[in-house]
Write a structure and sequence with these properties.
about 170 residues; alpha/beta; Rossmann fold; 2 domains; six-stranded mixed beta sheet; BD-FAE-like_dom; hydrolase activity; GDXG_lipolytic_enzyme; AB_hydrolase_fold
Length: about 170
């Protein structure tokens, strides 16, 4: 009989330990940001250009916006905004609203269409700043490889008010 009691206590202890560990894992797994995918910011010649937003859940005040333009290399002819969502998530976890933006690639639209597309995304995001909690006076653009080149062009084009290049 004592062994049965010990077994029951052992099961109870194991159950409690399991619940504590499971609860801790569940708490850790909760996202500190909200994702919104496939938001159309412009339609050009029947093609919808979209962006994905990553917004920190703690919006006690308007937050700076970092636009991750494509973040893909590919000589302006391949890649898409979904390739580097991890970068957006990392920035969102640090308190920045991030937007990963699609733009028309060079084999579809000649230069300077790519700059114009990203500028249109910035205008759209600024117009909807209140809806998403964006501080429209603090906008930065960044990218990787051809996306970085495009970010530099957008930030220095003369048509980009209040934009910082990261």
């Amino acid at each position: 009989m004592p062994s049965k009691v010990m077994l029951n206590q052992g099961v109870k202890i194991e159950t409690v330990v399991f619940l504590i560990l499971f609860g801790a894992v569940s708490l850790y797994a909760q996202k500190s940001y909200e994702e919104q995918f496939d938001i159309t910011y412009m339609t050009v010649e029947g093609t919808e250009l979209k962006l994905d937003l990553f917004i920190p859940k703690d919006l006690s005040k308007p937050l700076p916006l970092i636009i991750v333009i494509g973040l893909h290399g590919g000589a302006w002819i391949k890649g898409n905004r979904k390739n580097f969502h991890r970068a957006c998530i990392g920035l969102a976890e640090r308190g920045y609203i991030t937007a990963s933006v699609s733009y028309r690639l060079a084999d579809v639209a000649p230069f300077p269409a790519q700059i114009q597309d990203v500028q249109a995304a910035i205008r759209w995001l600024k117009f909807h700043a209140d809806k998403y909690g964006i501080d429209s006076s603090k906008v930065a653009v960044t990218g990787f490889s051809s996306g970085g080149h495009l970010a530099a062009l957008v930030a220095t084009s003369g048509n980009s008010e209040h934009i910082c290049l990261l």
